[in-house]
TrEMBL record:
It catalyses: 2'-deoxyribonucleotide-(2'-deoxyribose 5'-phosphate)-2'-deoxyribonucleotide-DNA = a 3'-end 2'-deoxyribonucleotide-(2,3-dehydro-2,3-deoxyribose 5'-phosphate)-DNA + a 5'-end 5'-phospho-2'-deoxyribonucleoside-DNA + H(+); Hydrolysis of DNA containing ring-opened 7-methylguanine residues, releasing 2,6-diamino-4-hydroxy-5-(N-methyl)formamidopyrimidine. Its cofactor is Zn(2+). This is Formamidopyrimidine-DNA glycosylase. The active site is at P2, E3, K58, R273. One of its GO terms (molecular function) is oxidized purine nucleobase lesion DNA N-glycosylase activity. SUPFAM superfamilies: Glucocorticoid receptor-like (DNA-binding domain), N-terminal domain of MutM-like DNA repair proteins, S13-like H2TH domain. Belongs to the FPG family. The lineage of its organism: Bacteria, Pseudomonadati, Pseudomonadota, Alphaproteobacteria, Rhodobacterales. Keywords: DNA damage, DNA repair, DNA-binding, Glycosidase, Hydrolase, Lyase, Metal-binding, Multifunctional enzyme, Zinc, Zinc-finger. It comes from Sedimentitalea xiamensis. Involved in base excision repair of DNA damaged by oxidation or by mutagenic agents. Acts as DNA glycosylase that recognizes and removes damaged bases. Has a preference for oxidized purines, such as 7,8-dihydro-8-oxoguanine (8-oxoG). Has AP (apurinic/apyrimidinic) lyase activity and introduces nicks in the DNA strand. Cleaves the DNA backbone by beta-delta elimination to generate a single-strand break at the site of the removed base with both 3'- and 5'-phosphates.
Amino acid sequence: MPELPEVETVRRGLAPAMEGQAILLAEVNRPDLRWPFPPNMAARLMSRTVLRLRRRSKYILADLDNGETLLIHLGMSGRMTVSGDPLGRFEHDHPAAQKHDHVVLHMANGARITFNDPRRFGAMDLLQTATADRHKLLSVLGPEPLGNGFHEQHLTEAFRGRRSPVKSVLLDQKVVSGLGNIYVCEALFRAGISPRRRADGISRIRVAALVPTIRQVLNEAIEAGGSSLRDFRQADGELGYFQHSFDVYGRAGEPCHTPGCGAPIRRIIQSGRSTFYCAQCQR
DNA sequence: ATTATGACCTGTAAGC
DNA sequence: TGCTTACAGGTCATAA
């Protein structure tokens, strides 16, 4: 479930197993995911030490000790799991290889990092750390919603002249990077804004309120991801499995959570994707 | 330039 | 039990 909070949860789960560790072996089991892997990816990863794991939007960036950075995107169905940590913080044993285990990193501490992605919408690339911001996939991204570059003035300017529904505009990664279908729906519910409203028709006050609302939704989700991380350490090594109690997402026909409302949550299609909202509370 | 649509893939659940 | 259909957390290329 990779939107920003899930990717951040995965990053936090991977970091203690990967940071400061050398990659002894990289198994690359197919030539591509969404795009071809970079040339000689397995060889370029082997014997490299991961200096640190970063996140930019929905991308995980692993800075290596040779000036290259491994870029990872989980797409729709990508998972990264840790197994076999010798300290016993993760799994005791390595599970049997699964279908769609496309890349497996064997770390010097005995941990094994497995990238599994049935739909193969994910991606990996290698880029120069020093110029990472100029990478084709990263250079087009808008500000981090939890960063200093995301503020009222930015959203106001981003919404100006945008006649599309605010739902679609918030999904545009150039406007703000890291939101996906779930958290846009949830943020608009909390902000009381109809997803159908034109972005350029939203009042100044409500645009201003949207900024802290988005931050709050994401921060709460990251917190909840943190708790599922603790489960993962005790359990089966599954990482990025995120449970959350949503107000609207996936709740079509169920009663609105707003006290005294109870109206049925609606599901509509916008730009080909499901939108969930309460027609009573969101105007 | 903005906007909407199809495309990329597989797996799962629901309906008949 | 089978078969068919709808749908899924993303985002890129294309065309209107």
